[in-house]
């Protein structure tokens, strides 16, 4: 693992429950929304503090470290959302945080980290290059290195998403985006004991975890993708062990599907999601279940990117809803003889005297 936690560390469902107790004071539950056109519930982590679920793991990690007496400055590498979550958590707790972000990180995420007072270092062109530089700085200065996903406290914090879904919805299936695997691991720990299937979602060409779970350990450079939040070259070691045991399946989504789903969320559901945030719903179209829920993991999307997508992507019209079967009229009772066919009888309707004496052009409406 790339954090200060030893490789022998484990994380359990009890850790997720402990994280829920810690976070209750700082983070409220996020809402659920039913996307009727997609037939899928959405867990709106794009409405979380700092615009992403990542703040859960960062806050739980800092609180757990403080309980252990570890008050060192914390450094983390992030494509943006983990850095924002760490910055906000450190601000709330009065602790020092340093974040290393790739130069390609979205401007809105860099601005969000700076807003909460964390030190920002831009290094490299990918998350993995930023992670290596963060490890060097941690070794030089004695900082605590906090992984964005491969840390027991982070995984436990992310798992509180699953606890909230279970308490409000009782789903059959939950679909979760996967980069390094922290969110999927936490949600699986929270839900598997309740009989809920957990399915991961990755982008074609950015599927390091899916390949690792199949036993393919090759290190392949991820392709360019709108889902920068899940663009990870090497998945976590701890998350890989958890998901190998608990994850039911992984769905691979094409980039065009991802882009169309993001635009649909904006136009049909009036929700702003980043690329990784739309990933689970895109995968959910291939998942059959009576009650399924997709995690919209974040909403930190540059306005220029959204404007370009709205201009360039023309989503296909959704399928028309199926017609409900009309109830048949109850046949008449056998004892009631049918009315004979023929002209209807005339009925005399009495007209009040005032109506007969008042000319039409003088009708009063008082």
UniProtKB/TrEMBL annotation:
Top-level taxon of origin: Bacteria
State the top-level EC class: lyase
Q: What is this protein called?
A: Threonine dehydratase
Entry-linked InterPro entries: Ser/Thr_Dehydratase, TrpB-like_PALP, TrpB-like_PALP_sf
User: What keywords would UniProt list here?
Assistant: Lyase, Pyridoxal phosphate
Tell me which Pfam families the record gives.
PALP
Question: Known EC number(s)?
Answer: 4.3.1.19
Q: Where is this region: Disordered?
A: 313-366
| Residue stretches of biased makeup (Basic residues) | 316-325
Species of origin: Thermomonas fusca
* An example molecular function term from Gene Ontology annotations: L-serine ammonia-lyase activity
Ranges for domain Tryptophan synthase beta chain-like PALP: 25-289
Q: Which PANTHER family match?
A: L-THREONINE DEHYDRATASE CATABOLIC TDCB (PTHR48078:SF6), THREONINE DEHYDRATASE, MITOCHONDRIAL-RELATED (PTHR48078)
Please state which protein family the record places this protein in: Belongs to the serine/threonine dehydratase family.
**Start-end of Low complexity biased regions:** 331-343
Required cofactor(s): pyridoxal 5'-phosphate
Q: Lineage of this protein's species?
A: Bacteria, Pseudomonadati, Pseudomonadota, Gammaproteobacteria, Lysobacterales
Gene Ontology biological process terms in this record: isoleucine biosynthetic process; L-serine catabolic process; L-threonine catabolic process
Q: Which residues cross the membrane?
A: none
């Amino acid at each position: 693992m790339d954090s200060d936690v030893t490789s022998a560390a484990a994380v359990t469902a009890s850790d997720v429950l402990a994280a829920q107790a810690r976070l209750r004071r700082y983070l409220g539950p996020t809402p659920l929304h039913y996307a009727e056109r997609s037939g899928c519930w959405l867990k709106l982590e794009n409405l979380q503090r700092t615009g992403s679920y990542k703040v859960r793991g960062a806050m739980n990690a800092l609180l757990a470290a403080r309980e252990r007496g570890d008050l060192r400055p914390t450094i983390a590498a992030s494509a943006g959302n983990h850095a924002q979550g760490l910055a906000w958590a450190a601000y709330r707790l009065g602790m020092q945080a340093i974040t290393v972000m790739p130069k390609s990180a979205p401007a809105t995420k860099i601005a969000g980290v700076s807003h909460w007072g964390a030190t920002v270092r831009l290094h490299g062109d990918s998350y993995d290059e930023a992670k290596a530089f963060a490890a060097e700085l941690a070794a030089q200065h004695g900082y605590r290195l906090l992984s964005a996903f491969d840390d027991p406290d982070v995984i436990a914090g992310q798992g509180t998403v699953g606890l909230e879904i279970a308490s409000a919805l009782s789903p059959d299936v939950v679909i979760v985006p996967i980069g390094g695997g922290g969110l999927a691991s936490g949600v699986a720990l929270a839900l598997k004991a309740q009989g809920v299937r957990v399915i991961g979602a990755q982008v074609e060409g950015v599927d390091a975890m899916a390949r690792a779970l199949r036993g393919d350990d090759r290190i392949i450079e991820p392709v360019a993708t709108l889902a920068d939040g899940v663009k990870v070259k090497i998945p976590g070691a701890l998350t890989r062990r958890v998901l190998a045991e608990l994850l039911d399946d992984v769905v691979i989504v094409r980039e065009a599907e991802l882009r169309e789903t993001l635009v649909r969320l904006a136009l049909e559901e009036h929700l702003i999601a980043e690329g990784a945030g739309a990933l689970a719903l895109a995968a959910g179209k291939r998942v059959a279940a009576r009650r399924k829920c997709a995690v919209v993991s974040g909403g930190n999307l540059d306005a220029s990117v959204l404007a370009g997508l709205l201009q360039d992507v023309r989503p296909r019209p959704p399928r028309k809803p199926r017609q409900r079967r009309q109830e048949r009229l109850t046949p008449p009772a056998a004892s009631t003889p049918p009315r004979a066919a023929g002209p209807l009888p005339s009925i005399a309707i009495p007209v009040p005297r005032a109506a007969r004496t008042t000319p039409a052009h003088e009708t009063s409406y008082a």
